[in-house]
Batch of 2 targets.
Target 1
Amino acid sequence: MPVFRVPDMTCSGCVRAVTNAVRDVDAAASVDADLETKQVRVTSAAEADALAAAVREAGFTVETG
């Protein structure tokens, strides 16, 4: 289960945008985004790199690892 830190995720609109970006890669993905910790946990069959790239393309910074 990939866990990303998205430091510039600051509101519910950001959560929605990040979730939509992940689901553009894998429509069946489960996304749990926590605004307080800025962490996004994803359960998906897709590669973590592809998910992170989609979130970056949506305009967000993604920290992995």
Target 2
Amino acid sequence: MALRKIASIGHPILRERAHEVTPSELAQTSTQELIDDIVATMRDANGAGLAANQVHVPMRICAIEVGSNPRYPYMPAWPLTILVNPVLEPSTRETFLNFEGCLSVPNLRGQVPRFVSASVRALDRHGAQLDFEVRGLTAGTFQHELDHLDGTLFVDRVVDTRTLCTWVEFDRFHREEFARRASDLVARFGS
């Protein structure tokens, strides 16, 4: 495993739609090594998720995992999940405002409307079919990562730009209130 450089906002790769991964591509050693590198890079940077195009590879692959994350202490745990060619469909019209940050948009947070539940279909790293539902804050994380694969950053979805703030100012002025809202979502959905 190797740590890879994370692309920052402004790099053209973050605005490209990543290409579908073929079964033969997925089976390649280089793709499996890429997946390992995505996981290692995500963990090293304390991310809740990381998409392949964030490490300069325009393939429809992402990793999501939440444990004891100092960047997101209010987020519920989610086991390491590798998604290949994922498709997400909202299962409700109800949304919540998620205060998001991104490893590719350093030191910035902003409120983004996200669906409170969605179904996810994808392949795992071995090509097995995945089909499951995500809810609450976890649903927001999945929507964020799948946006990356389409060349969309969270700043594109911020409805009120007055919510944009640095991490320091988020901690100072917004964390407590958002943590309360996050706690309500976790209590309601368990995730």
